[in-house]
Amino acid sequence: MRWLEPGAAGIVAAARSSITLAARSWSWQHAYRYQRGFRGNWSESGAAEVAVVPEPFRLDAAAAQAGKRALELWQRRQRMGNRGMYLRFHHAFSDWWQRFGASEPDLFALNGNGVHGPMDLSQPDRVKINVGNPDLWVKVVDKYLLQYASGHPAYAALDTTENDGGGYGVAEYCHTPESVAMDEPLPGEAFGDHLTDRYVAFANRLQTELHSRPGFADHPVGLQAYNETTSAPPRRERVQPGTKMQFVPRMADPISFTEGIYTGWKAMGAPDDWVYRPNDLNVKIGLPLGQDRRWVAMQKLGYLHGARGSDHDTCYGFWSGMSGLGYYALARQHVEPTKSFADFEAEYCAAFGAAANDVAAYYAVFRSMFEQQILPDDQASRTKRGPAFLRWGRVGGVMSRYSNYFSPTALAQAGAALTRASARQLSAPQRQRLERLQLAHRHTELSYALLQAVSDAADPLAPYRCAYELLQFRLQHRDDLTINWQVLFSHQAEMGLPVADLAAAWVELGGTGITFEARTTDGGMEQTRGDWWVSAWSSTKGGVTVPNGTWSFDDTVHAGGAASIHFHPADPNWDGVYSINKAVSVEPGATYVFSYRWKRLLSDYPSQAATLQYPGNRVRFLSAQDDLVQHQGQTAVFADANSSEMDTGWRTQQVTVRLPTDSPVRQLGLTVYIAPEGDTWIDELRLDKLVPGIDRELSIEVFDDNGPLPVDVGLQGVRDAVRAPAQWSDLKAGVDLRVLITPVPVGGG
């Protein structure tokens, strides 16, 4: 019996009519004594996921719980879990600034700016501590004793782990004389080149303080070798007996370098058994990267040097065709820690029967790419402080170089291996596994095509076409592949996949346009739900490419609305038409005022400023029904402002509509047509309903190179109305539209 992955599809067992068990007695004890396992990434959709994940792929509470349980069950079947003491290592002071920053600032690092506290007040959880302050040592122990009294197993040892970095490097660390005196620099080293000794000394001081308390004479203290304390063992301070340790080695470091870290720490008193806590599983871009053999090699190295627990951060859930083999091999290495990756690969591929060698060849394509190209590139570009992009938070460097590694030739080679596999004589379950792997490979091909399209400057519509095909495939095969789709969408958005084009494809495939719900708060209004289309714009700030041609921006509003939109023509000499349409739910007897405010800018074309001419914009204010202009006595204002000079002034137009109390009209609209020959800024497209008590609006912000420009508005929903493929053949270059929609209070609240 083998369990390749969570869920029924991962169970491999030969069909038998009966099972015969021989009578015998035996026992087995796991080689790992502390916790062992993968952190899961299953949680209900939050704001980040709502921002970039289409609704069918979001996790509600039930789906998140089911995914979490499936992963936990799979890990139990792989004999992962906990035997003995549970050692919790985490950033132990992440909430201290909020609790003690105002009252006891001396507890915190004197940073490079000469201030006790975080470098960035918006990141209080990243503040470093003043390890040389004896008052801090007492306070840490006092807090721990309260935690220990709760009986929770997470507090089996006092954790001393420093907070994570905030992006400011060594300037974040404490510069007080007391803390600096705990360092052991070599001649010529700058501050921060070696901080290990101060943190070993800090752990030792806490252990002394803890052991002075009644009943805690032999109680353990936890020390994590991480970040600045990972790159080198201590030079002066020895790790005190009874200390529990966790190592966070870097995957991209040479094996010999990592082995030197382990032996160096051991020479300075590190314990014989410790917890292995890599970030390697975070190195993902949603394509197979071939790290599987490296993962197992690093874990095996740790075991041979004393690792007796594991805490892998994090299992993203990219099983099918991406990391499934690597996840399986890592889990099996816990049970048989001295075996090689080849042993576990053979087990995994045996589930494909006669196609085992072909499946192994498929994975070997990506493994070769990683070991012969990606890893050496990282080694070549590494700095004094570690690897360049094969690390948590930096893997976008792989995405930016993807074309150096992935290629049509490599993908064709991998696909050919699966084609050969398909020709083998396979059982029904084996063929089903192979077909799922073939689907996964097709997903890789479509993802690669989208990346290629983004870099294809000759065809600005290629990203949308590829996004459409990829999203259509994901919708069709969502339940056929073992992939945490929510994490895949959100992670790839961070990695640079064109969220806006995927959003547009989602609308074209029948998804809803821009919609949201809001609720009143003491401070105004807050959004409680927003769909992918609007949030994708706000999260990327990079722009939705709107093809040249007739393009419309439609919305439906209640009680009032406006838009602040920047149309930036890729070709300043192109003369086309943009339209913005507004449709408003109206009430008989009310008065509505449409207003439009715009200007032209030359900031994006400074080199051409002397030659650009502006024949003017054609702006029209109309009702949603043309006959309403005459029938209801509406005044329609047409503007045709001509100028041969560079014009940066504002132009404003208004239309007032009064509806009689017996009016049958239930919806009123405004259309603005703009034909730019330069940079045109539609700063305000506004509708005000002039009746008492209607004062709720929304803000739409437009992002240019200098930041957002907010305008108070009232908006209910927006969707792109012109995305038909039939129109693409006539379209040329694009314009950038960047929109952020946020509820705000207006008027009397």
Would you report the number of β strands?
24
For the report, how would you describe the main beta sheet? 6 strands, mixed
Rg over CA atoms, rounded to whole Å, is: 31 Å
Q: What topology, given as strand order, has the largest sheet?
A: 9-8-22-11-13-18
Strand content bin = 15-25%
* Helix-and-strand structural type: alpha+beta
Helix content: 25-40%
What number is the mean pLDDT?
Answer: 74
User: How far is it from the N-terminal to the C-terminal residue, by CA?
Assistant: 64 Å
Number of helices: 20
Q: Unreliable segments (pLDDT under 50, ≥5 consecutive)?
A: 513-582, 596-655, 669-685, 688-749
Rough shape?
Answer: globular
Question: In brief, what are we looking at here?
Answer:
With about 750 residues, the protein is of the alpha+beta class. It is built from 20 helices and 24 strands.
